[in-house]
Specification:
The strands form five sheets. This protein has a five-stranded parallel beta sheet, with helices on both faces. The protein has 13 helices and 18 strands. By secondary structure, it is α/β, with parallel strands linked by helices. Strand 9, helix 8 and strand 10 form a beta-alpha-beta unit. The structure holds S-adenosyl-L-homocysteine, iron/sulfur cluster and FE3-S4 cluster.
């Protein structure tokens, strides 16, 4: 069945008349989490109820990731268990969506070897979720066909967030950068920015519902607007407009690309009262030679310059990053350049990965002769340096007071609250549950490597 009318109309047609539940297993990045919130929103708006125990759910949706090989293996590992649920119960549907299923060879593999799957849907084909659900639920038809990424942007998709206080909002889909190691441009299509009015309306609505923190999402947020033909409206403009929305107190964004980090953006961050004092700035490698091979379009020096400008704008800004070790051709000397940047920047958070070869990317064909043990050792060497200076970074925060959005209670003690500072540091402190969802001032008392302890002042 194909629908041509508005999203709300589409969904009305597939409202279910019996009690069914869903369970979503999300793999991958914040974009993928944001997509899962949309899948949850769609399912709930047609009558599905959320089920925390996957064994009891009628519809199990896997939102997949293919950024590295182990992400793909996770899905096939999970299939073993869900197949059993399906064998024991006719009323169980298996849906597989996300980046993995935006690849033809994966769809072929599912068709051939995992016949219990009912629907597959790539990231670029989310628009056809309602019609595929209709076919499955009303006409008992499976649909495992491959659909190319569509460049349409669908608005008004219902969205159900896990938190009542912080929410993510996608501002740009896709990626044009083709970093040579990366699969994302192939599975998420070209860059398409949402219209400013749609984004601002979403944020205003969230503010009215009591949301305090917004995370703006995109594979490359600072190329937001480059694809607009009729306006020069850019990422810094969007940040300034969101700043004006009452009720939103903390604005985060992920990920900016160093090549597009303009002075204008730094000025907007500097003068903002709401933009978090934490910038996630992926480094990937500290070697200009490797960065060139990676097609990152910036050098080691460019990167360090941006960090200096950010620190000059506000010394309280913390920097987090992504690093890949063992890219094809990475020598000890190249790796020392990465360590050099780690020592200079003293990142507050580092997501480190061993290079993983991805089918269809440019790096797939590059010769890779660094042994696996050496790559693992390189990861460890970054970790050793990081864990040595991190307490020093944290100690600088002791005695100072930070605004913290209270996110919940500690797992072991419900008199202990947890939240994050603007720098994205986890902090725990005594307090009443009634503070959850509020912003409180917390003075930092001590540091414990991965978290801080403080008190409400
Ligand atoms: N758009 C974001 C990154 C999204 S992917 C950006 O450019 O910053 C998240 C991280 O996964 C990347 O920053 C990179 O460090 C890592 N990554 C991507 N492809 C990889 C690969 N083939 N092997 C290992 N790590 C990879
Ligand atoms: Fe991948 Fe590079 Fe695009 Fe990030 S910017 S998603 S690393 S291609
Ligand atoms: Fe994975 Fe797709 Fe995100 S490949 S990291 S879920 S964009």
């Amino acid at each position: 069945m194909r629908f041509t009318n508005s999203y709300k109309e589409k969904l009305k047609k597939i409202v279910i008349d019996k009690n069914l539940t869903y369970y979503i297993d999300t793999m991958g990045c914040s974009m993928s989490e944001n997509d899962s919130s949309k899948y949850a929103g769609i399912l709930e708006s047609i009558g599905f109820k959320r089920e925390e125990n996957e064994e009891k759910a009628n519809l199990i949706l896997f939102n997949t990731c293919c950024i590295r090989e182990n992400a793909e293996n996770t899905l096939f590992g999970r299939f073993g268990t869900v197949k059993k649920y399906k064998m024991n119960n006719d009323n169980v549907y298996i849906v597989v969506v996300g980046c993995m299923t935006q690849q033809k060879h994966i769809i072929e593999k599912i068709k051939k070897s995992y016949r219990f799957v009912d629907i597959t849907l790539g990231t670029g084909a989310m628009n056809s979720f309602p019609s595929k659900l209709y076919d499955l639920l009303k006409e008992k038809k499976k649909n495992i066909e491959f659909v190319e990424v569509t460049n349409e942007i669908e608005e008004e998709v219902p969205i159900k967030y896990d938190s009542k206080y912080k929410a993510s909002v996608s501002i740009i889909y896709g990626c044009n950068n083709f970093c040579s190691y990366c699969i994302v441009p192939y599975v998420r299509g070209r860059e398409r920015s949402r219209r400013p009015k749609d984004i601002l309306n979403d944020v205003k609505k969230l503010a009215k519902e009591g949301y305090k923190e917004i995370m703006l999402l995109g594979q490359n947020v600072n190329s937001y607007g480059n694809d607009f033909k009729d306006t020069n409206y850019s990422f810094p403009n969007l940040l300034q407009d969101i700043e004006k929305i009452d009720g939103i107190e903390i604005i985060r964004f992920m990920s900016p690309h160093p090549k597009d980090f303009s002075d204008e953006l730094i000025d907007v961050i500097k003068s903002s009262k709401k933009i978090a004092r934490q910038i996630h700035l992926p480094l990937q490698s500290g070697s200009s030679k490797i960065l060139k091979e990676m097609n990152r379009k910036h050098t080691k020096e460019d990167y360090l310059k941006i960090v200096n400008k950010l620190k000059n704008a506000d010394e309280n800004i913390s920097i987090s990053t992504d690093i890949i070790v063992g890219f094809p051709g990475e020598t000890e000397e190249d790796f020392l350049d990465t360590l050099d940047v780690v020592k200079k920047v003293k990142f507050d958070q580092i997501y480190m990965f061993i290079y993983s070869k991805r089918v269809g990317t440019r790096a797939e064909k590059m010769e890779d002769n660094t042994p696996e043990e050496e790559k693992v050792r390189r990861l460890e060497r970054i970790k050793e340096i990081y864990e040595k200076y991190l307490p020093e970074n944290n100690k600088k925060m002791i005695g100072k007071t930070y605004k913290v959005l209270v996110e919940g209670v500690s797992k072991n003690n419900d008199k202990v609250l947890t939240g994050r500072t603007s720098q994205n540091k986890v902090v725990i402190f005594d307090g009443e549950k009634s503070n959850i969802g509020k912003i409180v001032n917390v003075e930092i008392l001590s540091e414990h490597l991965w978290y801080l302890k403080g008190k409400i002042v």
